[in-house]
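We modelled the chain as a single entity of 256 amino acids. Its sequence is:
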Amino acid sequence: MATTTIGGSSNLSSSGTRVWEKTVTDANDVDEIFSNARDIGYTRLNQYRTTVVGQLSRYDSSDLFKIQVQSNGKFALSLRSVDDDTSTDSLTEGDTSSDSDKLLNMTASGLRVQVYTLKSNGQETLVADSGATEGSKKYETLEDMLTGEYKAKKGDYYIKVSRSDEVSSNKEVPYALQVKQGDAKHDYIVTETASEDTTNHKYTKTPSVSSYSSSLSTVSAASALQILASSNQGAADMLSVGYLNMAEIYAKNSGK
């Protein structure tokens, strides 16, 4: 199996953790397919933790990411969102409850998360879904991921972030997604910048694989754990700290 690399030189944070940054460009809705999923690197047991800072705009119905799991063993996923009716304090304090239903509600307000794996024939298979019926296998698998009890196998995983059914398609939803295995020693922070459609305020109907691009840059030591989302994405400050190492989100108005 080929090894995914993020690249870039590392810097030490104030806590002694090495941190890398990667920037990826969001795909237009018409190009939001598995073969075009943004590569966010990898996770490895007790080594690497990956955090994605993104936003669903009114021209963006979903985001699809690909991550390589390099170790068999426990796998933890967390998703935090900024909702107009949610205070900053409730997002940053975290939840010490083991009740995964409560955990899901607190960490993914207004969002739906789905996780796919690949079969040997290359076909994507949905294994976890916050929108699944409570008590179903896919819902229970997501609960295991949220509490860090999911036993993952090596391979490529795809994570889809979209709005939950009750949220308007016009509502902008900033979020932070994090994946880890065990106690991380290194941080990879991926910032997703706006798609062409979001920037141009339009919907493109013709597929174009060229709409996806990525670039690498190194985080300075002073700002290693803080990413400032671009103003045209809602401008949210998100920090990679918190309960179960979830990404904390600080809502911030951008000239509104």
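As a brief sanity check on the tokenised model: Residues 44 and 70 are 5 Å apart (CA to CA). Residues 11-200+219-250 form a domain with the Jelly Rolls fold (CATH 2.60.120.380).
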